[in-house]
Amino acid sequence: MSDDQWTSERMPDLSGDTVVVTGANSGLGFAATREFARKGAHVVMACRSADRGEDAGAEIEAAVPAASLSVVECDLGDRSSIRAFAEKFRDRHDGLDILCNNAGVMAIPYRETADGIERQFGVNHLGHFALTGYLLHSLRQSEGQSRVVTQSSGLHERGELDVERVRRRARRDGAPDDYDRWGAYARSKLANVLFAYELDRRLDATGADVVSAACHPGYAATNLQTRGAEMSGSTAKLWLQRAANRLFAQSADDGALPMLYAATAEDVQGGEYVGPGGFMNMRGAPERQRSSERSYDRELAAELWAASEELTGVTYDLERPASTP
Questions:
Q1: What pLDDT sits at residue 237?
Q2: Which of 135, 225, 235, 322 has its CA 20 to 30 A from that of 144?
């Protein structure tokens, strides 16, 4: 169901709402933060670098003078940083209306998180799994229905996930011989969608007035694409990626629209997947779409959930869906 006319101008008034956006200092997170602020929300900018977050906040305030923003350090690759962020949030806010699990890394050389997990899976999925768990009480304290929106990618369709293999690799040191940076990225993005759907099923089973949805930005020009080339030291790949961004990508502002739609449109339901409806789903107005067949595998989602609790030490006070084995 597409709405070709939907833009951020159609977002509802968000005065009095509190929103958390991870990776808010650049790219899609920056664009979304600005639009949430424009609609009156107080936005907590969860950023790995507080300094970069403050610089981004100042830029948003210059464009939106009435913006209500706060910057809090949150390194999704460090469980202690995630926990500290959540504690600060709960100390300062009574409830949370919208959580945008947006931050991520893409196709980087092998790195590990502070907790010894392959970085793409650790940041993109486990970091957000932990953050959402720590903020679940705040989401349930919201006066109305609250939402969790988890940013995935169209590349999740290429993702393959062997949960036991993820567990084994989390217990070993160093890069595996067969490490594939794009395969690892696709795996983490599949995990994002599996998590979003399983979270919604568990929220529904518990009767919580919180919905969880997934989204993807299509192909949007951000520094996400160039970071991998920069980290690998490949000048040729860096220039090729920059050229591709200029020639084929839509803007970060347009790429943020599916996340904004999933977070605020009245007709969005839990367990839905939103992306751009134009050419090859890489650009265009946001619409509800169908994700990969693998992403609807409830048994796989339950296995991933159990492994995520094990690897993060974060458990949710939610009932398991009756249909989950």
A1: 53
A2: 322
- Looking at the annotation, which residues are catalytic? 185
C-alpha span between 255 and 250 (Å, rounded): 7
**Which residue bears the tokens 């979003």?**
196
Which residues in the chain show pLDDT less than 70? 1-4, 172-173, 223-249, 323-325
- pLDDT at position 169 is 82
* Angle at 172 (CA atoms; ends 169, 175), nearest 5 degrees: 75
pTM: 0.91
What angle separates helix 128-140 from helix 298-312, to the nearest 10 degrees? 90
3-state secondary structure of 30: helix
Q: What is the pLDDT of residue 243?
A: 47
Determine the residue type at 244: A
Report the side by side order of strands in the sheet with 68-73. 68-73, 42-47, 18-22, 98-101, 146-151, 210-215, 273-276, 286-289
Predicted local distance difference test score (pLDDT) of residue 40: 98
State residue 230 phi and psi, 5-degree precision: -65, -40
Cβ neighbours around 221 below 10 Å, total: 21
For the chain, first and last CA: distance in Å?
32
DSSP codes joined into one string, 216-244: ---SB-STHHHHHHHHHT-HHHHHHHHHH
Q: Which residues, 6 or more positions from 168, have their beta carbon under 8 angstroms from its beta carbon?
A: none
* Nearest in space to 201 (alpha carbons), one of 213, 219, 189: 213
Question: What HEC string does 157-221 produce?
Answer: HHCCCCHHHHHHHHCCCCCCCCCCHHHHHHHHHHHHHHHHHHHHHHHHHHCCCEEEEEECCCCEC
Condensed to tens digits (0 to 9), the pLDDT of residues 127-164 reads 999 999 999 999 999 989 999 999 999 999 999 999 99
Strand 146-151, strand 98-101: pairing: parallel
Q: Pick from 17, 31, 19: which is nearest to 60 by CA?
A: 31
